[in-house]
Amino acid sequence: MLILGMFFLNLNIGNADVSLFSMGNDEIARKLIFDFRLPKTIAAILAGIALPVSGLLLQELFRNPLADPSVLGITSASGLGVAIVIFLSAILGLNSLLNNPWLLCLASFIGAMLGLIIIVFFSSRINSTAGLIIIGMMIAGLASAIIGVLQFFAPSEKIKSFLIWTFGSMSGLSWSQIGVFSFMVLMGILISILTLKGISGLRLGENYAHTMGVNIRKIRWLILIASAILTASATAFVGPVAFIGLAIPHICRILFKQTDVSKLYVLVVLLGVFSMLLFLWISQIFPNGNLPINIITSLIGAPIVMSIILNRKNLIHDEL
């Protein structure tokens, strides 16, 4: 009911004084709601599904409470793929490439998958939360450096559009982009559902998982692919939104005291959708225009991350 309420609330709020109940036969009002506000609201729902589920999968895979696409540098690596398409298309004079949402998704997915493979490579050699976070910071730093090189040669208008994209926004998506976004999220969700039984087994140890008939190697790759698809689709269309993938799973664990993976998965999806719809509404109530969604998620997510670290009782200090 809360999600449904936030959905209709977002359809009825904006710079123009137009609502579902007052538009009548006004063609302009109808176009504003169904071609601008509705795609924006659907984008918030899709991002609210993709990022928290990706965060949950990574936390379970690495058995690390701080695992998250943004903390591990996966979002930055995914953003690098988007930056390559945006800047190289301008440098090479191929601006028509930007109109292809599949290309943006593919570039974002390749970047996210590359970042995940690097993380997996180091995680098998560094059994440390602090070490994994440092590797994530290095991936993010390397991605930023390469993006900086591309920006140096790109025209100023592309730099401005990329900068706006980094703030995170649900606005401006066409229905064709929403279609691609929906397909990618659906594919990621279907793959992630196949991993839930394996995750339950892995929680009890690899030996027990083997006795349950769990193919550990297959489950790990499915988790990586699902996380990459979900992170890449959200990053490509709404920007590098931070902290949602980390905060939502922990909030669900704290509020609902739920340990069953399947039930936790459903709670994460529901709370993720509600949270993104709430953040979208908050971003639109400011008088001078829409506040970037990344600012809101960082203001809320950063304190949660700090509280997680504090509650772990000197976790990073012990591991260092």
From TrEMBL:
The chain crosses the membrane at residues 40-58, 70-94, 100-122, 129-154, 174-196, 221-244, 264-282, 291-310. It is a multi-pass membrane protein. Keywords: Cell membrane, Membrane, Transmembrane, Transmembrane helix, Transport. One of its GO terms (molecular function) is transmembrane transporter activity. One of its GO terms (biological process) is siderophore-iron import into cell. Its main location: membrane. The keyword Membrane applies. One of its GO terms (cellular component) is plasma membrane. It is found in: Cell membrane. InterPro entries: ABC_BtuC-like, ABC_transptr_permease_BtuC. CDD domains: TM_ABC_iron-siderophores_like (cd06550). Belongs to the binding-protein-dependent transport system permease family. FecCD subfamily. This is Iron ABC transporter permease. It comes from Moheibacter lacus.
